[in-house]
Please model this.
Amino acid sequence: MTTAQTAGRTTAGTAGTAARTAAQVDQWHGMYEGVVVSAVDPTGVGRLLVRVPEVLGDETPVWAVPVTPLAGSDCGMYVVPPPDSGVWVQFLDGDPERPVWAGFRRGGSGDVPSAARSTPPGVPQIVLATPTGNALVISDLPGPTGGIKLQLHGENGPFIRINETSIEISCGPGLATIQLVGPQVIVNNGALTVL
Model:
C-alpha cells in the first residue's frame, strides 16, 4: 500500500477521527472489541462484517476473516455468531484493512447458553449451542446426568442422551421415549419393557 493510499483512509481511535499515514499503520497491534453487523458472507468462508469502534469508529464496518482451530480442504470447523454478538478482532501487521476475527466475547452471563448453565460450576464440559436452543453438551458429570446430550429447541424438545448407565432417545418430556439400560429396552417410561 502506498503512502497516498494510506493517507486517504480515516479512522476513529481514542483520539478521534484522523487521517492515517503509513507510519501509523503499525499502531493497531493487539486485540480489540468488535460487534457483528452481519454473518452473511458472500464468499462463504465464515467472514464477519464487524464494527471495531476503537480502531475504525462507529460507522465503518469491515469484513474480517476467521481464525479457526481446524481448517482444511472440505473439512474443519465452521462457526459464525449472529448479528450484535461480541467478537475479538485483530489486524494483521497492525493494518486496519486486514482484520481477522479471533474468537467470541461475552457481554455478560446472559450470553452463556442455557445448556451450559445446567451443569454445576467447576465440572468440565463442552457446550455448542445455537440461539434457538439446539445444543450438544459433553459433560464429565458421573452417572446418568453426565455424558453426551444432543438437544433440540431447549429442555422441552427432543433429545438423545448417552451416559455411563443408559442411552435414551426422547421426543421430549411426556412424549415417546426409548431407553437402553443394561440388558433392557424400556419404551415410554415402562409402558413396555423388553428383556
Summary: The chain has two domains: 3-105, 113-194. The helical segments are 3-7, 53-56. The chain is about 5% helix and 40% strand. The longest strand covers residues 32-38.
